[in-house]
Inverse folding.
């Protein structure tokens, strides 16, 4: 079969020849040729009109009304392209359906938001958790239905690194963890998880630790008191008993420290504020100077501790918690640095932050441990830490106390080469000096 353009040319040639012959017979070859061209144009016009009707009326699955020639070829190609696109569309529809079915079956809530945070789609769990109706609420801004200004601000800010805790009031009060993610052009998907039971358990755990620490303090104080009395009454010639009482006294101090740290950590982990979270403007250098003196006394002056702090610097924050951050890091540097070790304590405004930095040339830390150091009771070397009187809670306290003042902790260390612990506080908390 000739190629499509060749077939059209053949038809045109045949019509011209027929016109020429007829013209020749009738004595007007020109009119014969013109007649041939006219017939060709009429045939082409009819074919195009059929093609146009076929395209306009659809469906394109019907056989094209025009076969052969260039127009027949165009119709075939259109039909094939249409069939291919149709198949892709069906596959995409099926994939979307499968995705929606699996989202719909999830226990966690999912809501798809369009521009202006309007609801496009929601699964059944999200409807129950947020009290929405679908499809009635489709097209409404989510902020109009979940009336919480902080939640509306969270959606508007488009900074979704952290999740948002949404408190739903009413008879069945619940806490929902909402995590939004942006995608496509101005769209978002939000995942909602009911964390009421989880939060309740966490509160119970925290209260239990705080209560038990509190309850244990009184008997411990009594025992430590009696140990002290016995030490005073002890005859000078009883070295064994003296050793036993000495160890009892040492261990009760350790236990007191542990209970103190556990109680402080429980307070820091809680959301409610107490007296210890009242903010004040702290004269940083004076506080650091006193911590330095205590640290030197604790190691019998066997470390060199240098302090660099521009006089007059003040940091706004809860005194007890800020002091706890500073003291824990300075005392750790003393604990994990041998006699003669050098410790540098710096407080300054730099790089858009207020920085507190403690560097030592002590034992250092293997990088594998660094991400876990702020976990409660995580220790690199258990025996060494216990020997030095550590509770294993120091860095956990530092982390939580920093969180309270929007600060963060950075740890750099190499085994054998020493460590640097840096706390960054927002510059807005600093006053009393040129801020660099
Ligand atoms: P601990 O009471 O055991 O010191 P921390 O929470 O303060 O508990 O510290 C956790 C662990 O981190 C320590 O046990 C120690 O292994 C390591 N560590 C903390 N500070 C330093 C430091 N300056 N140098 C080396 N290791 C350190």
């Amino acid at each position: 079969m000739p190629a499509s353009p060749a077939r059209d040319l053949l038809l045109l040639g045949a019509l011209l020849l027929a016109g020429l012959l007829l013209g020749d017979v009738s004595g007007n070859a020109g009119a014969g040729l013109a007649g041939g061209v006219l017939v060709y144009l009429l045939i082409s016009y009819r074919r195009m009109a059929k093609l146009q009707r076929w395209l306009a009326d659809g469906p394109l699955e019907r056989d094209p009304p025009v076969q052969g020639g260039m127009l027949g070829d165009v119709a075939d190609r259109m039909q094939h392209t249409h069939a291919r696109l149709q198949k892709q569309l069906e596959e995409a529809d099926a994939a979307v359906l499968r995705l929606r079915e699996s989202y719909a079956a999830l226990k966690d809530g999912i809501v798809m938001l369009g521009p202006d945070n309007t609801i496009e789609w929601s699964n059944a769990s999200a409807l129950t958790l947020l009290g929405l109706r679908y499809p009635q609420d489709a097209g409404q801004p989510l902020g109009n239905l979940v009336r919480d200004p902080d939640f509306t601000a969270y959606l508007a800010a488009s900074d979704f690194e952290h999740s948002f805790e949404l408190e739903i009031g009413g008879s069945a009060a619940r806490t929902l963890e909402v995590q939004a993610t942006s995608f496509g052009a101005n769209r978002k998907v939000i995942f909602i998880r009911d964390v009421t039971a989880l939060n309740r358990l966490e509160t119970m755990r925290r209260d239990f630790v705080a209560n038990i620490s509190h309850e244990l303090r009184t008997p411990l104080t009594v025992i430590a008191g009696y140990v002290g009395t016995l030490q005073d009454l002890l005859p000078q010639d009883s070295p064994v008993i003296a050793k036993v009482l000495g160890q009892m006294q040492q261990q009760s101090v350790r236990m007191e420290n542990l209970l103190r740290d556990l109680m402080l950590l429980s307070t820091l982990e809680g959301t409610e504020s107490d007296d210890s979270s009242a903010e004040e403007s702290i004269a940083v250098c004076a506080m650091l100077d006193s911590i330095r003196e205590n640290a030197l006394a604790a190691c019998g002056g066997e470390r060199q501790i240098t302090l660099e702090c521009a006089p007059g610097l003040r940091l706004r924050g809860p005194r007890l918690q800020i002091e706890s951050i500073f003291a824990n890091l300075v005392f750790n540097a003393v604990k994990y640095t041998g006699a003669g070790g050098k410790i540098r304590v710096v407080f300054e405004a730099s790089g858009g932050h207020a920085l507190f930095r403690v560097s030592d040339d002590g034992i250092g830390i293997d990088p594998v441990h660094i991400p876990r150091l702020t976990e409660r009771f995580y220790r690199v070397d258990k025996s060494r830490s216990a020997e030095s009187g550590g509770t294993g809670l120091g860095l956990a306290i530092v982390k939580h106390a920093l969180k309270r003042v929007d600060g963060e902790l950075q740890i750099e260390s190499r085994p054998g080469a020493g460590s640097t612990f840096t706390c960054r506080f927002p510059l807005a908390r600093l006053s009393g000096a040129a801020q660099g």
